[in-house]
Structures are given as C-alpha cells and as structure tokens.
Amino acid sequence: MEGPGDPGAPAARWKRHIVRQLRQRDRTQKALFLELVPAYNRLLEKAELLARFSEKLQPEPNDVTPSVHQGPWEKESDQGLSPAALRGKWQEEAEGLRLVCGEMAYQVVEKSETLGTLESQLEERQSRLAALKARVEQLEEVRAKKAGQVHARRALNEEQRAAYEALRARVGHQEAALRRLEEEARDLLERLVQRKARAAAERNLRNERRERAKQARVSQELKKAAKRTVSISESPDTLGDGIREEAETQVLAAQPGYLESEAGEKWKRPFRSASATSLTMSRCVDVVKGLLDFKKRRGHSIGGAPEQRYQSIPVCVTARLPTQAQDVLDAHLSEVSAVSFGPNSSLLATGGADRLILLWNVVGGHLKANQTLEGAGGSITSVDFDPSGSQLLAATYNKAAQLWKVGEAQSKETLSGHTDKVTAAKFKLTRHQAVTGSRDRTVKEWDLCRAYCSRTINVLSYCNDVVCGDHIIISGHNDQKIRFWDSRGPRCTQVIPVQGRVTSLSLSHDQLHLLSCSRDDTLKVIDLRVSNIRQVFRADGFKCGSDWTKAVFSPDRSYALAGSWDGALYIWDVDTGKLESSLRGAHSAAVNAVAWCYSGSHVVSVDQARKVVLWR
C-alpha cells in the first residue's frame, strides 16, 4: 500500500479511477450481452453437432451403394460429390450459419434495447400505478369522510324533519286557534256593531221623545197664550195681534199635538178683538225657529243650501246590438284591465298593468289616440269619468286612487289612505265626491276639493267593485256578498248574498236595477225596489277569466254584456233572460272589461293580451 505522502499516490488514484470506469463499462456492456452469449454458445453447439452429423454421414471410399435415404442436410445434387467437396460445402454452410448467428445476435441486441425501453415504460407505469393507488387511497379516505358527513347530515335532516313536523303540527293548531279567534272577533265585531246600532237607535228615540216633549210644551204654551184675552183699549199697538193670532193658530194646527176639537172650540168661542193674544212677536219668532230647527235635525233641510249635483247624462232610448269588430289595436304594453266611456260617447279611456291611461277618440268607427296620462304609481284596476266628462279617476295597485283633469297629462290629486291595492274608484253624483274600494277591507268616501277622506267603512271582506247612487253606496266583496251603505247613515243597510266571489257591479241609469258578475260564471240582475234577484244569466262556454272581470248594462238597460275567458263577448236580454248573441274572433285571451257608450252605438272590450277592440 502506498502512503498518503508517497509522490506516486495521485497517479495511483487516477489509475484506480480508470480501472473502476473500465469495470463499470464491462459490467454495462456485459449486461447487454448476457443473453446474447448463451444464445451464441447454443448456436455454436448446434453447429458442432451438425458438423459431427456431417462427418458420420460421409460415405466410405469403397462404398458405391447409392443412398436411398437422404438426411435432413443432404440434397439430391450432393450424392455424387467427394468428401472434400462435401466438407467444403459444409464449411460454407457453417459460415452461413455463423452469419445468421451474427444477425440473430444483432436482433437480440435490438430486442434487448426494446426490452429495456419496455421495462422503463413498465417502471414508469408501475410508478404511475403506485401514485394512482395512493390517490385512490386518499379518495377512499375522503369518501369515507364524506360518507360520515352524509350520515351525519341525514341524521340532522331526520331531526330537522321531526322538528318541522312538530312545528307544522303547532302551526296547524295555531291556525285553527287563529281561525277560531277570527270567528270570535267577527262575532264580537258584529255584536259590537249591533250594540252600537241599538244604542244609536235608542239615543235617536230618546232625542225624538225629548223633542216631542219640548214640542208639546211649546204647544201648551201656545194654547195657554191663545186663551188669554186683552181689552182693545189697552194699547193701539195690539191692533195687529189678531192677525198674529190667526197665524199662530195655523202653526198650531200644523203640529201633531194640536187637536181638531180644540181648534173647533176656539172657533166656537165668542168673537174677540184683534188684540186677543198677549204673545209678542219675538216669542212667536222663537217658537217658529224652534220648530224649524227640530225639523232640520230630523233630516228635513228647510231653507238649507242643496248639494251641488252634476247635470244629468242624456239617457239612451234604444241601444244597438254590436255585430262585428270595427277596430282592433294592440294598445298597451301589457294586460289591459279597465275601460270606460266619457259622457259624450266619443272619448274613451283604457288602463292596464303598464301604469298608463290612454285616451282615445272614436272617429268613423275607429279608435284614434288622443292623450297619454302618466303618473300612476301602479297597475290600473279601474277608470271612471265624472258625469261632466272633465275629470278622470283611476284605482291603482299602489294603495291609492289618482285624479286627472282631462287635457292634462300629469295627475292632479292622489287619494292615499288605503293599506292595500285599490280595486275600484267611482265618482258620486254629487260634485267633488268619490268612493274607493280596496283589498284592505275598507270602502272610503272622499272630498275631492281637499283630497280628504271624509268617511271610512270597515268591511269583513275584500272589496272588488263599488257603484254609487243618489244616497247609496253598493260594494261587491270576495265573501260572495253585496252590501248596501247609506251615505247619510253609519252602518250597512242591507246584505244580499250571491253564489261566487263578486267581480263587478253595474248600476242602471234609473238606479232601479243592479247587475253583478261573480266567479260562479253567472250574471245576476237585482231589483233594488224589492231587493231581490230578478234574473240569473248563464251560457254554455261563458266563464269569468279573473277576479276583476267587468260586466255592464246597456245604456237603456235592455241588455247585459260580459266578456269570457276564451275571448268571446256574451249579450243577454234583461227582460227575457235569454242569450241574445255572442261575438267571437277579435280576442284570443280572456276579456277583462267591457264598456257600452252612453249613446248605445259602440262597445269596447279589453283583454289580457293587450288588445282593445271597438265593436259596432
């Protein structure tokens, strides 16, 4: 061994390094030929074996017997060759076999390289397979965690479902209790209203008795005063007392407490002088004022200023039945739900869910756009002209009704105070007054001069439509009832039940008949003189398309008109109750509302598909 201080140590190290590299190369190249060398050795062994076979098969020199059997390495042309020639030939064949062995060795090298490539691919795939197995294991772990979470969620869902069922049962019990409480509240409200009505009636009766007692006292005073006599010489100023006495007697005769017998006895008494009474003129004036005040308190407005009323609208003598559609327009941007004619029959208003009110002129059987009224805060549910035709009132879904002056594009007034959708708004026959109905279960009267709610009527059900008479308000409700309200009284005067939710009301011009449309697909004519249903109109195919389907009387009250869910218009004869005609073809959707002009010559219908149709 050479020490570290030996000068020949560096040379020995690089020599050893070269030797290691040569050995490494030998091992590498030997690995390539490990399979080739045994194969080559086997080929050499086979070649030697063939050589020995060939030596054994060589014929003897004296043997001339032809060989019948040819070995596997013999050919027919080799039979006559000498052993030397055969040896050369076999040597050539041996060389050929060596060449074949070389080629096979080269193929073995190529196959070895291919095998190495395949082994590297196999190793790569095995590594990938190991990675995938690791990934699978991770996914299996994640799956097991997710399965545990699913199991926990299912358990939680079962708990929540049980809690939900318990809450649902509690809600059901609470809803039942709420319904009972609502029924009790309605009963209490009705009882309260009845008690208030009885108390008001008793108070009115007491007041009337008090006034009658006061009147009787005044009559007694007048009788006592009439019995007193005074000499004619007392005063020249009493010459006119006889005339006053006669006037007083006439006033007493008009009183219910004054008896005819007493009057007769008065005239049977001897003639008295002109100064037969001692009542002064001021006393008589006080008595007459008291009587007038009493009558006024009882509702007789003596000498008072009468309420301002609109001029009456001309009455149509005979309405003409429409037969065909004259004009069809896609007027609005969405569903059209309201239509109304002005009193001159040439101005028309339509309103819909696009929050616009369009004014139209009827000219020559066609509709021509006049004006667009803007400013509505929600979908339009009802439009109505006042009897003078100068103002337009519309109900909206914005919990208010709005007032326009015809000719002005912007709204003039907003009647706010409802807490839910306003479904109907109508003018009263007296000036500057209107009525609205809402889904907040109230009906309100309005003073249009001040945009002030003068009265609120609380009802137990949604109000779908209202109409107004001289001193009466009629409302149709969702609880299948029509209610009548006196404008001068505090409470409902009458209730008429109908089958189905009331969708619209129409009052005849003479205010003697009411037309109602309801969701039981019928129209009913109510005679207001006897408060009884006079006619019920039905037809095959007629159905109300919505809760706001409007039906109307013709101006002469001879016909009833309504639109159906299939776009057809049905017209009934009010007197006979028979279906007069049905109009089809112009509408393809449910008809929401119809209007018959006051002259009786035109009908307009609107539907849920934005169409406005003029019929003539």
TrEMBL record:
CDD domains reported for this sequence: Atg16_CCD, WD40
Compartments where found: Cytoplasm, Cytosol
Region span, Disordered: 59-82
Record keywords: Coiled coil, Cytoplasm, Protein transport, Repeat, Transport, WD repeat
Limits of the Autophagy-related protein domain: 17-204
GO biological process: autophagosome assembly; negative stranded viral RNA replication; protein transport
PROSITE patterns: WD_REPEATS_1, WD_REPEATS_2, WD_REPEATS_REGION
GO cellular component annotations of the record: Atg12-Atg5-Atg16 complex; cytosol; nucleoplasm; phagophore assembly site membrane
Coiled coil: 115-218
WD repeats: 329-362, 373-414, 415-448, 553-582, 584-616
InterPro entries tied to this protein: ATG16, Autophagy-rel_prot_16_dom, WD40/YVTN_repeat-like_dom_sf, WD40_PAC1, WD40_repeat_CS, WD40_repeat_dom_sf, WD40_rpt
Entry's family note: Belongs to the WD repeat ATG16 family.
Function: May play a role in regulating epithelial homeostasis in an ATG16L1-dependent manner.
Protein name: Protein Atg16l2
Organism: Capra hircus (Goat)
Gene from which this protein is expressed: ATG16L2
